Automatic annotation (TrEMBL):
Protein name per Swiss-Prot or TrEMBL: Protein translocase subunit SecY
Coarse class of the protein's main subcellular location: membrane
Gene source species: Sanguibacter keddieii (strain ATCC 51767 / DSM 10542 / NCFB 3025 / ST-74)
Cellular component, GO annotation: plasma membrane
InterPro entries according to UniProt: SecY, SecY/SEC61-alpha, SecY_CS, SecY_dom_sf
């Protein structure tokens, strides 16, 4: 693999793309440390050093590479764009116009991308306003005065800065996709999560029984990574055969191919949705009286990751969103109609409705295995941290590992394909 990296950097075009991608990733990390105007950076650092952070916004802070709790210009990170993309994708089921745009091809996709950009800015304004309000009220960083001048103009300036930072991140991600290597948004998320690993490892090693806990955490993480790589590379291949047909004087068709179906077609989306929904009751409880009975019940049974009810709800939500998201992204009827239109059929299965029923049967079975796999991967790190009495607010959860491994595999495949286009031996032998 090292020799493949060397060949990649010896190829002028590929070297230029790799260096451009690395430069954008470095710029993204630099922006995570530049404080927004009106923020007392010294107080923020002192509060973070005292451990004044809560676990409620851990997922959002993880995706921003720690920039959220530092209230930097990139505090919102990539989350507004992710949320907007998911909303636009879900709206295809509700709004026929969105589904029609999706079927139009490149022009329709460009229109949907434009809607996603507008929605990203709107969500960025909403999220920035929420975080600034929480910072002023002391709920984002408890006990810390991070905005000395809490006037309306100062707050408005911070909101505008954070919104502009979210727009800039969206532009940087699109630049990587166009001129670099890999998917830009995925690589920025990869950068944010990977940047949180070294501090978390040092914090584990520096605690009580640090060396033993450090070794166990690293071993568990490596085992989970190996399992994720194995499953993410696995796929069920449904054979498809195309009948021969005459067009003019030429014979077309007669080829055999397959439909690749991944075990985990939903990716990391179910885990993100489940984590976000479980954070909603705790978020609502933050604005209620602490002595209220329902608030204490929420804090005890839902807000705590080690609570049995929290774990059970987490698993059920992951299972539900796996089936829900797969049903949205893969339509057996549409695939069967396209196959029938071009003369394709699954051997032993009649074209049309029987093919759609067969595809639905296969997808249901595979999604069942994929949903269980996601739930197990998401729970193994949490259970390990509970057993070792290690803080669960560190970036070795199932979400982080799934994203890092998935993005890493996809990027390596793209570099490998570009190397093979130039008649080089790639990474994957």
């Amino acid at each position: 693999m090292l020799s493949a990296f060397a060949r990649a950097f010896r190829t002028p075009d590929l070297r230029r793309k790799l260096l451009f991608t690395i430069s954008i990733m470095a710029l993204f990390r630099l922006g995570s440390f530049i404080p927004s105007p009106g923020i007392d950076y010294g107080n923020v650092q002192a509060c973070l050093a005292d451990g004044g952070t809560g676990e409620l916004l851990g997922l959002v802070n993880l995706f921003s590479g720690g920039a959220l709790l530092q209230l930097s210009i990139f505090a919102l990170g990539i989350m507004p764009y992710i949320t907007a993309s998911i909303i636009v994708q879900l709206l295809r089921v509700v709004i026929p116009h969105f589904e029609a745009l999706h079927k139009e091809g490149q022009s329709g996709t460009a229109k949907l991308t434009q809607y996603t950009r507008y929605l990203t800015i709107g969500l960025a304004v909403l999220q920035a306003t929420t975080y600034v309000t929480m910072a002023r009220n002391g709920q984002l960083l408890p006990g810390c005065d991070v905005i000395p001048n809490d006037s309306f103009m100062t707050s408005l300036l911070i909101v505008i800065t954070m919104t502009g930072g979210a727009g800039l991140i969206m532009w940087l991600g699109e630049l990587i996709s166009e001129r670099g290597v890999g998917n830009g948004m995925s690589l920025l998320i990869f950068t944010s999560i990977a940047a949180s690993f070294p501090p978390a490892l040092f914090s584990i090693a520096g605690g009580a029984g640090g060396v033993q806990k450090f070794i166990i955490v690293v071993l568990v993480t490596l085992v989970v990574i190996a399992a994720v790589v194995f499953v993410e590379q696995s796929q069920r291949r449904i054979p498809v055969q195309y009948a021969k047909r005459m067009v003019g004087r030429k014979m077309y068709g007669g080829s055999t191919t397959y439909i690749p179906i991944k075990i985990n077609m939903a990716g990391v989306i179910p885990v993100i949705f489940a984590s976000s929904l479980l954070a909603v009751p705790a978020l609502i409880a933050q604005f209620a009286a602490p002595e209220a009975g329902w608030v204490q019940w929420v804090q005890r049974n839902i807000a705590q990751p080690e609570a049995p009810l929290h774990i059970a709800l987490y698993v059920l939500l992951i299972l539900f969103f796996c089936f829900f998201y797969t049903a949205i992204t893969f339509n057996p009827d549409e695939v069967a109609d396209n196959m029938k239109k071009y003369g394709g059929f699954v051997p032993g299965i009649r074209a049309g409705r029987p093919t759609a029923e067969y595809l639905d049967y296969v997808i249901t079975r595979i999604t069942s295995a994929g949903a269980l796999y996601l739930a197990i991967i998401a729970l193994i790190p949490t259970i390990t941290f509970i057993v070792l009495d290690v803080s669960t607010n560190i970036p070795f959860g199932g979400t982080s590992i799934l994203i890092i491994v998935g993005v890493g595999l996809e990027t390596v495949k793209q570099i490998d394909s570009q190397l093979q286009q130039r008649h080089y031996e790639g990474f994957l032998r």
